[in-house]
Design a protein that fits this description.
single chain, mainly alpha, 13 helices
Length: 294
Amino acid sequence: MNGDAIEYLGSQIDDAFFLLGAAILLIELVTGVFTKKMTGRTLLDMIANISTQIPYLAFEIFAMGFVYLGFVAINANFVSWDIPVTLWSVVLALLVADFTYYWEHRMAHEIRLLWTQHAVHHSSRFMNISVAIRFGPFESLTSAIFHLPMLFMGFHPGVVFFSIVVVQAYQTWIHTELVGKLGVLDGILNTPANHRVHHGCDDKYIDRNYGGILIIWDRIFGTYQREEETPHYGLARDFNSVNPLAVWFSELPGLFRDLGSARNAGEWWGYLSKRPGWAPENGSAKRQMEGPAE
């Protein structure tokens, strides 16, 4: 067992979850037709979801290869220790990556610059499997940066990327309303019921259930909320577009407008680094988190 083989295994797991997602999508489409819930608006939104893969994959192709090479260079030149690649070390890496994902995800909600990317994932008013691939163009770069400490812990770059891919791939199947509550599993894993809460914009659902594979991190850090009534999905602010370009860059016009209005470096930095909706004390803070109408 070596790092490269583990990385290849990650791609196989990613493909398996993709096929599972495709099967769920087919069921959703058929069910939607028979229940008459599959409207033209829903289909346009699904197309917008899929369209986000255009800028996302373009960045992956042209930039993430260099990021991986950077990880390899750091590992070779700055890390003189290593964790042997074994079954148990890979399980440990997955646990560390899942913990890291919790904080990466939480920070994406609490830092506006990161939110400009993650809000793309939250801006759909629907919940179906196509939302699972609705990404901001630069989210993969953010993820790589957050997982960089795993290199200095001694994990092989291939194992790090394997862990990132598996945590992300797992979340494909949880973007659906087809699967109801799963009893005890809802208290341990990130399940469809838990993730529907995360995409909810009702007040009690906002900023809850950040976990990737495990939901226990939310229980430990006080961000867990069980699903009660069916959430309203989408952003708390009024955003309901199915225009792909509007979806890709939905948060940037507002950010640029606020940066342009900043009167000093402190305000400029505040607009970038503080919570979405932050404004100077003499301004008006308009909340821009997930809300009714994920």
